[in-house]
Amino acid sequence: MKQGFLFSATQQVASKIARPTVSLTLAVLLSLSAGSTLAESKIYTWTDAEGTVHYGDRPPRDTQSEEVSIRGQRQAAVEVSAAQLNGTWFGRGPNGGETRIRIQENGAIRFTQTRPDQSIYTYQGIWRLEDRTLSVITEFIEEGGGGTGMQRSVEPVQLTYTFTSFNPESFTLRSQGEDINVSLVN
């Protein structure tokens, strides 16, 4: 009898511990997946022989599982071709600034942005494309508007941009929450 009581008490404690863990796991899964690209993947839930609830994209074959409904916006997949990046790209920002990007096949890049206050942000460096992320290793120069001088980075800086749209004629890059829209000039 004591053995049954001990098992029952252990099971009760385990279920009290498992509930917050399951809730926390579900909350983490939902928060991570809500803002990210879900592509065609699905999330399933199932309960194992010990009563533990699991979440994942591949439930065991011999277990009954249910698909979890996740609400959120799906981002369309953006495919970027490195060969189609070569050229000079130009765009105007909503605040009146201008952006000119020169991307070369040999890995060189030159970026110039004129801001509405007439300050100029320029860098040149090397670029690498990985999926939809453009990484640039550079040294930057910033010239202040109205003759306020020039600043230069002392050490190389890595900049990261994410393509949010791309076609051979135009693309949009996002960096630090700001979009840069440009079109091919040549």
Biggest sheet, strands in spatial order?
4-5-6-7-8-10-11-12
Major sheet description: 8 strands, antiparallel, barrel
The CATH class of the largest domain is identified as Mainly Beta
SS-based structural class? alpha+beta
Q: Tell me the number of strands.
A: 12
CATH-defined topology of the largest domain: Lipocalin
CATH architecture designation of the largest domain: Beta Barrel
Straight-line distance between termini: 85 Å
Mean pLDDT: 77
Domain count: the total is: 2
Per DSSP, what share of the residues sits in E-state strands of 2 or more residues? 35-45%
Low-confidence stretches: 1-20, 33-39
Distinctive features:
single chain, 186 residues, alpha+beta, Lipocalin, 2 domains, eight-stranded antiparallel β-barrel, three-stranded antiparallel sheet, 1 helix, elongated, disordered N terminus
Descriptive overview:
With 186 residues, this protein is α+β, with helices and mostly antiparallel strands. It has two domains: 67 residues, no CATH class; 103 residues, Lipocalin. Helix content is 18%, strand content 44%. It has one helix and twelve strands; from the N terminus they run αββββββββββββ. The strands form two sheets. It has an eight-stranded antiparallel beta barrel. Strands 2-1-3 form a three-stranded antiparallel sheet. β11 and β12 form a beta hairpin. The longest helix is centred in the first third of the chain and has 33 residues. The radius of gyration is 26 Å and the shape is elongated.
